Amino acid sequence: MDVSKYAALFLAESREHVSACNQLLLEWERDPGAVEPVGGLFRSIHTIKGMAATMGFTGVADLSHRTENLLDALRHGRAAPRPETFQLLFRAVDALGRAIEGAGTGSEPPADEVLGSEIDTAAGATVGDQRPGAIAPSANQTRPVQVTIRSGALMRGARASLVLRRAEAMGRVTALRPPAAQLEREDFDGRFSFRLESEASDDEVAAALCTAGDVEAIRFEQTSPAEAAIGIRGRQIRVDLGRLDALMKQVGELVVAKNRLIVLAAAAQDPLFEELSDRIARLVSGMQGEVIAARMAPVGEVFDRFPRLLRDVARDLGKRIRFDMEGEEIELDRSILDEIGEPLLHLIRNAADHGIETPERRTASGKPAEGRILLSASRERNSVALRVSDDGRGIDRAAILAKARREEMADASVETLTDDLLLRVLARPGFSTAEAVSGVSGRGVGVDAVMTRVRALGGTLDVKSEVGRGTTFTIRVPLTLAIVRALLAVAGNERYAVPLAYVAETVEFDPGAVTSVRSREALLVRDRVIPTVHLRHLVAGAAGPAPPRRPTIILEVGDRRTALVVDALMGQQDIVVEPFDAPRGMPPFVGGATILADGAPALILDAAALL
Amino acid sequence: MPDSPTLHSVIFRIGALICAAPAGIVREILPRLPATRIPGVSEAIEGLVNVRGSLLTVLDGHVLLHQERRADDEGAIVLLDVGGRRYGLAVGQVLDFLEVPAHSVAQRADLPGVDPRLVRAVGLRGDQPFILLDVEALFAPIIGADGQLP
Amino acid sequence: MSHTVLVCDDAIFMRTMISDILAQAGFQVVGEAESGVQAVEKYHQLKPDLVTMDIVMPDMGGIEAVREICKTDPEAKILMCSAMGQQALVVEAIQAGAKDFVVKPFQPSRVLEAVQRVLG
Question: pLDDT, tens digit, for every residue of A68-104?
Fold first, then answer.
């Protein structure tokens, strides 16, 4: 039995438990009297211990064992844990995280004996007579267990004894059927049952009993929440992301072929062919939906690490910050999710570092001493908005405006700094938000890094800030990257794809509604003045005269809008974003390229660049 | 003549010029394909073509070498690996695959109307001179992203 | 970091075979014992990660040896090597503290599975 092939699984599952531990610790720290967090912590650590021991990762197993003892002591101790204890537990979970990463990738770090003995000391101090390693049995956790020994196994009686020894190591065994003597004589059909009184979860019991070998099945008759969880887990499998990517790529090609087929079928005017093509189109669309759904994961997976991180940042800065999250259940494509963590991290750090004031300053300006940062996710059409808001000091617009004038990004006539211009100044490479706040250079992650990452995902970044009230950064990203629904727009004899994610509506261009805003042409649409962009002018080179009636696409990113006037619309199509080498000088409004149903390449317009 | 070193080249015509590219970097020769123009970029970029489901940037040899496109040309695209990437070079006509004895290829010589920096060598095909292009030098000002694509 | 093993069996053939199976799987056989008394001595001397223990040996049997070893080290990882028909003895060994068992004739895969279980 080679356990090394389980390393990836061990790593994935242990990471989840470490992440859960961090959440639970935060929850517990907020309410040290609560009893739920410690139970959950104990179970997670115990599970890590079991897995690590199975994998032979002795360092991880040892550290989790000691941490488990401390938790057990705390759980049975009368006094609520003290701040130092939380700090110690956070350190233990961190060390465990590192040890797991190391072990999972083949190099378990050396044991931190100092930490280990601190944990042991704390465990001993909390409850004097707690024996380390002993899992205290409790009366309310008794459950029936039914074990089946594999029929081909040798010496099934001896095997049953081994299973019982494992069970006894976890708690008290009663009501053994058939009785021991009969089992030892192998006078049974391979099945036996008993009641086990133990704190361990059903998962843990099953795992431990299976280590006796030749166990075919273990059943727990009663339905407990833990067992229900096993049921759910049974309906899920872990799939390597590479496989999903490969599948997605194939489905992408299938979508292109399907689009092609529809065109051919329509031209052939053969009802049978057309019916078949319809059927294939439906199947491919269904499949595409399933694959995209399979790639979706809740943003909570990325959000989860922020509370812990923010807690540490706030501690280091000597600030009091309350961190809240909303919309963790909103789903995003895995590949976007993997990329979005870092930009969010930058924004959250910035908010804590430069946004939120010190408690003294806050109190002096009549604000509550505790600052607030809110991270939220929400669905907007075909995109997801991720917001980082703080109720801190806000950005000093006068300072930014002065800077914008110095760098000739704004001329002297500009009186007020719009949010747009603010973002453009902030997103200048090398410009730090520390500067934005205090007007002096300092530490701080440039907004340009965030902007670059977000743009690379086909997303947009927005900022709103009010002095004294706080700042909100909004990242908007498409739901999925690989296949997007797009509107085909025509200019001259060229076709361009406009992703629907940012299309608010399409209207007819009405020359009578043309007005101007800040010396730019604009369109009045239902009493709203929207700046216009003519696709023909934009791509300079469209042949022939513009038609008299022109459709207009209203693009919308956040609350900014642009009216894109085109020659004609050719309906919607699922397009697959195809990689290509961008030549030098390619304009920013080209967001990528795709292959249309008729096989011709077409460029994808980047809505954000047109706003 | 046992082991006389030879040079494998693909010979093509661009306008009035007979050119060659080392066979080692030539991946494929395709008929002329409809290209999608990319606005705002150099005129030497003909656009994007669909090569069996992949997008390829095609550069126009005529623009690069300041040659007039000839009306009777069928047109072809020579797929080249340059700097680790693949590009298409639109030419007038592909003429030949040639194994030239290395001694018949003279190092750089001045040819009227051709930037000498784009010429790696000059050779003879029969009695006709041809230029062995320095493809990297030819493409360098055009390709390579300053604006990274998503 | 390979695990160290002490192989205890009165038959040199069995010792050689078990040693080979384990060595090929990357274990380090650090000692061999041909009696129960020797097994106990060498266990204390070598502190191996794993012991394979024959049940029937001269000079103190395997079960006695398991009992002796577990008296000082209850966590000792001992794998019993038994023959068909010795079930009662195996059960006794398990109650004495043995962690697993294999049944002769040995199949390498079964031996290694049991070893992994014991070390796990």
Answer: 888 888 877 655 688 888 889 999 999 999 898 888 7
Most confident of A75-79, A186-190, C12-16, C79-83: C79-83
Q: Which domain holds residue A213?
A: 139-234
Residue A11 burial by Cβ neighbours in a 10 Å radius (0-12, 13-18, 19+):
middle
With respect to residue A132, please indicate whether it lies within any of the assigned structural domains: no
Average pLDDT, chain B: 82
Q: Say yes or no for a CB contact (<8 Å) between A541 and B39.
A: yes
As a whole number of angstroms, the distance between CA B26 and CA A583 comes to 20
Cross-chain Cβ contact A601/B47 below 8 Å? yes
pTM of the model: 0.50
- Does residue B148 belong to any structural domain of this protein? no
d(CA A21, CA A28): 10
Q: Is A184 on the interface with C (CB under 8 A)?
A: yes
pLDDT at A228: 37
- CB contact (8 A) between residue A593 and residue B146: no
Closest CA–CA distance from residue C36 to any residue of chain A (Å): 21
Q: Is A457 on the interface with B (CB under 8 A)?
A: yes
Range of the domain at C8: 4-119
A348 and A276 housed in the same domain: no
Confidence category of residue A335, pLDDT binned at 50, 70, 90? confident
Whether A388 and A311 map to the same domain: the answer is yes
CATH code for the domain in which residue A91 is found: 1.20.120.160
Q: pLDDT tier at C1 (50, 70, 90 boundaries)?
A: low
Is the per-residue pLDDT at B133 higher than 80?
Answer: yes
Q: Chain C residue closest to A3 (CA)?
A: C116
Cβ contact, residue pair A184, C88, below 8 Å: yes
Given CB atoms, is A590 within the 8 Å cutoff of chain B? yes
CATH number at residue C36: 3.40.50.2300
| Number of structural domains chain C divides into | 1
Total residues belonging to chain C: 120
Is B145–A579 a contact, with Cβ atoms under 8 angstroms apart?
no
CATH number of the domain enclosing B23: 2.40.50.180
Question: Containing domain of residue B59, as a range?
Answer: 6-139
Question: What helix, strand, coil percent values describe chain B, rounded to 5?
Answer: 10, 50, 40
Q: pLDDT above 70 covers what percent of chain B?
A: 83
CB contact under 8 A, C87 and A158: yes
* Least Cα separation, residue A534 to chain B (angstroms): 14
pLDDT digits (tens, 9 = 90+) for A399-438: 777 777 777 766 666 677 777 777 777 777 656 545 444 4
A593, part of any domain: yes
Does residue B94 lie in a domain region? yes
Residue C106 CB-density burial (10 A; 0-12 exposed, 13-18 middle, 19+ buried)? middle
Number of domains observed in the structure of chain A: 5
- Smallest CA–CA distance, residue A594 to chain B, in Å, is 8
Does the ipTM surpass 0.90? Answer: no
